[in-house]
Sequence to fold (476 residues):
Amino acid sequence: MADESVTSVVGRQRTRPASPLVTDTGLEPKRDWKLLGIITGHRTRIACVMTLTTLALYFIQNWLWPHGTQPHGVVQNIYAWLDLLWCGAVLPGFFGFLGMISYRYPENLDTVREIQQFVVWRIVTRGTNISAVASTVNRCIDEMSRHPLFNYLVEVVIEDVPLDQLPQDSHVHYLVIPNGYVTPRKSLYKARALYYASIYSKVPEDAWIVHLDEETQPTSSGIKGIAKMIAEEEASGELRIGQGAILYHRKWREHPWLTLADNVRTGDDFARFYFQHLLGKTIFGLHGSYIVVRNDIEKKAPFDFGPVGSITEDAFWALVLMQKGVRTRWCKGYLEEQSTESVKDFVKQRRRWYSGLKLVSLHAPVKLRWRICLGMNTALWTLAPFAGLYTFAHFAFGYEVNPVVRLLANLSFASFATLYLTGLKANLDEHGIKNRFTRVFWTIAQLVLLWPFSLLESVGVIYGFKKPKGFDVVKK
Fold:
């Protein structure tokens, strides 16, 4: 679709009158129960899982860990004090718990009204995985035909590759980046593509953009949540940036174990990320996908941050906008992605996040007060591999642990385990797995694999100690 046609598509679609209430959108499944308003099934599960996991940890430790032995001498005392490494997870665990206990599953999405605002699904891709891009474009078209809550365009920002294998539709526009294109600050990778789009896209200033990675696909609840958010932001005039939860169950059958490993990401959406959006500030960063932002707000901070801001350009961009006074909010509903297809790619993905957040914490062009929370969180993340190593060493050679340290460490790990189980439930529900025996099996598998998954996460951090040579592209 040529550039010249974008304006005509926008104009043609905006002439369609909005219906007072869209009813032919399908019903969202009931995901939670509530009692007396504040007591919900989700909150009850969080409290139960936290309690049972903490008690289980005490039981296991009393059975396996050395106890009653006191350190003697300087070396032994230094070694014993290393148990403070376990406290590195206390703050992330605490804020995660606050987010989880505050979170409520979306309600009343079926009553969302059609909106007049124009919405652009912006997919950024190198074009090397044509099948993934085509699948996402087609999913956008299909879901929008079933849930026509707003006028839309699918804008694919892509490198100069042949487009004959990609869907052609009046709702689809390909914005091709010329070979050799260089931004003013020589940004790289996705940041380069996003900057190109901010300059050359014909999308109107007052249109809303939903950022998608090439494998991120909309769902019924996501479309309704986006429409609801846009209506609220336009009515209030706040024009905040929205972000919601992402599920990873799409290739569960092909890659079941790595899908389980990514349940922590969905759980963290319901936890720390939900908490930060209650505050309206990206103190833990921002996902590069499922960002809902009005075009003129996005352009307040074009993505041209140079090579140092090109690894995790999303977090860089968010901090710059926070300093400019823009705030964020939670967007209800889910979008879908898929997990990595190999352990190697899983580790590379974590390495990129860790390396990029280090650069953001050190080099984002904002005042220290905007970087300090993200910097502290990244520094605490750095301690995770060492805390894990000390845990294994403690089984063979350890001393009596201070009761306060032990309590804080157990609560932190319980919060970590709860992230996985919370994400597991959401992905099981969305995937349609209802059989109780099957759900019990996956729950046991999730708990048994907590330690291996923790090890993989730690390997990604250790791998990230070395300065990355480029942008780690992973296969999904």
Observations:
- The longest strand covers residues 151-159.
- The CA atoms of residues 428 and 435 lie 10 Å apart.
